[in-house]
Design the sequence.
């Protein structure tokens, strides 16, 4: 007689706005059904923005929606307000915006690579990748003043310029990443254990990815060509020579499993380095802000009437902001949609049929934000037994050791 | 999937032709960005709420649309829902964003679901139910998604009338007068 | 400037548990960056553990949302004595940009007692190490009083 256990897993891997609570129904070691509950990090941000705040005051709030992609949210918000109010951004500012957005993509993908390695059990790879990541954080501090919350964007342009004095350090960091790329590729993609753990694990088929409206590297790894930078012209991407990154560039076939997602993210790091070099070579001259005086900018925004959407490609996928201005000081409506929101539904087909020990790596492969508090309670015949995240992580590491033998 | 990619003017003509009488307004927005001045096309459509499902079926004949999000506005007597679709992704620089806005009245805030056509719309429809008080017919799973279960019923955070969350607001940084 | 003198024999190595009560993850990645080879607090014996029952110090980030309030209290009760609670970042100290919202139940010190506050948005890994050292000294002095 089969007994189905139901495991609730408390906020394990939070999505961009919130830690997620899972409930798995398992039969033996295989997962039969998945349910999730989000909402633990609901801070009421859109409500905060719609009341008592003019668009310039909303920018710091938009930055703190997520600490890892804190360039993409202000980026999309600025594009939405500029579309609604009809403000034109100078070309030099567009190129600087592109450079900073690509630097953020490098940092986020390398961060993810370390976290994924930690979930499999290779802690030394976590330390290696995060050490490599420190170079790009130093560069961001050199250009913008802070490692994490950078506050460079404003409505109508950017606040700080990238001058010719900054170029040598940027080029030196890019050369460092070109050398490290081969090292990272060798560590992740040529390792037999990583292949055994991640190949054919957590598969998302192309039809499911399209139907569930998945975004970002999750959907590109399944073969769907969706990338806001290539689909629509925004900032400087319309001038550059870029293309969609899908796993068949490296391996020749598309399977949609965790290994493909690793491939897509590592190739995107290389693509970002190339984009930054293209931007540096073609940087136009001119102003960096459409309206440098803050009082005049606020006056323009106060009179503006219109609606606008702003879409940007964050490291995790498409970010969209919708702003409606009605001639008052605060916007009438502000809607934010972070990319992990759309990537929640694909967890269900990815996790069905997998083993419990694979839950951490499959859930982390869609790159939700960081790990959080974990409580696992297994209910066996009515008696509760509290087990910690350590146990889940231990299961995952033990599976790797078994495969290594 | 048709192989010919229509421009936004042709799409606007087709939509006006097909849904005669139910479309209130179609606006085409084009913005040029960058040094090479490549254009980005957006269509803004205002329509009656009855054509919602037919509109989605029309988009699916062209190509499976990507639903980005559904936004909501409280306009006083009515609630306006804006559906943000996009088609022609996968072709370099040819994507067109289509924003369809429908209105429901506050006395009868009911609208049909599109989850049977686009399964990925489940989360955003659940969010509209709890944030604006809109009732979505036929939704497969109508539970709360972002608000906690002990948040009081009948309080809708995005509304601007008496059902708004003003009584739930707490100022964390209160300074008490001595 | 006062010199912090650490006692010659470290009586214990601090084990730290990290709790996210609804933050934007900026502080969380700076906490993990403090463990990586550049700042490397593991050479002092400070380790991140997976369960509050093994921890000495609780690192809390984020303004507390309604859903997480009782979970924070439960985790605090599970940390064995003597313990220290450190709040990392501006959100947990005062609420910062989210100070007026309908889903937040107050800065962390209204829910659990706090020993050390580390301000910053996010604080640099050096500041986090400094805060943990202060908590360490406090724990050592608590042990000494017994």
Sequence:
């Amino acid at each position: 007689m089969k007994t189905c256990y139901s495991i609730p897993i408390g906020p394990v891997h939070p999505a961009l706005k919130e830690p997620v609570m899972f409930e798995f129904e398992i039969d033996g070691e295989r997962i039969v059904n998945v349910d999730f509950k989000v909402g633990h990090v609901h801070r009421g941000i859109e409500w905060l923005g719609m009341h008592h705040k003019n668009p310039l005051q909303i920018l710091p709030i938009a930055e703190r929606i997520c600490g890892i992609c804190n360039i993409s949210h202000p980026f999309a918000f600025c594009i939405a307000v500029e579309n609604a109010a009809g403000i034109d951004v100078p070309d030099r500012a567009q190129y600087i915006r592109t450079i900073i957005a690509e630097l953020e993509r490098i940092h986020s993908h390398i961060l993810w690579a370390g976290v994924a390695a930690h979930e499999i059990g290779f802690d030394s790879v976590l330390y290696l990748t995060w050490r490599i990541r420190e170079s790009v954080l130093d560069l961001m501090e050199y250009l913008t003043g802070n490692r994490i919350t950078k506050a460079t964007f404003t409505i109508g342009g950017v606040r700080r310029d990238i001058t010719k004095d900054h170029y040598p350090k940027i080029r030196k960091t890019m050369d460092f990443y070109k050398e490290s790329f081969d090292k990272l590729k060798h560590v992740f993609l040529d390792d037999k254990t990583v292949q055994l753990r991640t190949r054919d694990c957590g598969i998302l088929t192309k039809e499911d990815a399209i139907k569930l409206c998945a975004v970002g590297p999750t959907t590109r790894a399944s073969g769907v060509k969706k990338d806001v930078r290539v689909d629509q012209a925004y900032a400087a991407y319309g001038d550059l020579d870029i293309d969609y990154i899908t796993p068949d560039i490296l391996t020749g076939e598309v399977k949609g499993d965790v290994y493909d997602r690793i491939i897509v993210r590592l190739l995107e790091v290389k693509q970002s380095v190339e984009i930054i070099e293209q931007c540096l070579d073609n940087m136009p001259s001119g102003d960096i802000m459409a309206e440098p005086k803050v009082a005049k900018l606020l006056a323009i925004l106060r009179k503006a009437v219109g609606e606008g959407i702003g879409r940007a490609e964050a490291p995790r996928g498409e970010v969209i902001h919708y702003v409606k201005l009605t001639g008052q000081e605060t916007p009438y409506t502000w809607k934010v949609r972070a990319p992990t929101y759309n990537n929640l539904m694909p967890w269900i087909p990815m996790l069905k049929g997998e083993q419990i020990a694979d839950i951490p790596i499959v859930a982390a492969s869609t790159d939700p934000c960081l790990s959080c508090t974990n409580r696992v309670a297994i209910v066996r015949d009515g008696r509760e037994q509290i087990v910690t995240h350590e146990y889940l992580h231990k299961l995952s590491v033990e599976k790797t050791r078994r495969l290594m033998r | 999937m048709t192989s010919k990619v229509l421009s936004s003017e042709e799409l606007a003509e087709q939509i006006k032709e097909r849904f005669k009488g139910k479309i209130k307004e179609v606006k085409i927005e084009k913005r040029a960005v960058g040094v090479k001045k490549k254009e980005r096309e957006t269509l803004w459509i205002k329509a009656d709420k009855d054509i919602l499902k037919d509109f989605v079926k029309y988009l699916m004949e062209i190509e499976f649309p990507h639903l980005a999000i559904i936004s909501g506005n409280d306009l006083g007597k009515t609630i306006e829902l804006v559906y943000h679709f996009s088609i022609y992704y996968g072709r370099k620089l040819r994507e067109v964003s289509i924003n369809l806005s429908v209105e429901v009245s506050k006395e009868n805030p009911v609208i049909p679901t599109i989850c049977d056509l686009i399964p990925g719309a489940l989360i955003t429809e659940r969010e509209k139910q709890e944030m604006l008080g809109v009732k979505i017919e036929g939704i497969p799973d109508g539970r709360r998604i972002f608000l906690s279960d002990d948040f009081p019923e009948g309080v809708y955070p995005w509304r601007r009338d008496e059902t708004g969350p003003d009584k739930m607001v707490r100022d964390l940084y209160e300074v008490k007068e001595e | 400037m006062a010199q912090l003198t650490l006692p010659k024999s470290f009586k214990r190595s601090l084990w730290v548990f990290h709790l996210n009560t609804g933050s934007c993850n900026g502080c969380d990645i700076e906490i993990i960056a403090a463990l990586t080879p550049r700042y490397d607090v593991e050479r002092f014996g400070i380790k991140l553990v997976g369960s509050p029952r093994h921890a000495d110090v609780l690192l809390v980030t984020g303004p507390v949302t309604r859903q997480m309030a009782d979970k924070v209290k439960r985790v605090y009760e599970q940390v064995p004595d003597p313990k220290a609670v450190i709040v990392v970042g501006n959100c947990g100290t005062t609420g910062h940009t989210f100070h007026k919202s309908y889903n937040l139940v107050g800065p962390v010190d209204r829910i659990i007692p706090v020993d050390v506050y580390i301000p910053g948005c996010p604080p640099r890994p050096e500041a986090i190490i400094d805060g943990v050292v202060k908590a360490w000294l406090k724990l050592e002095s608590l042990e000494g009083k017994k």
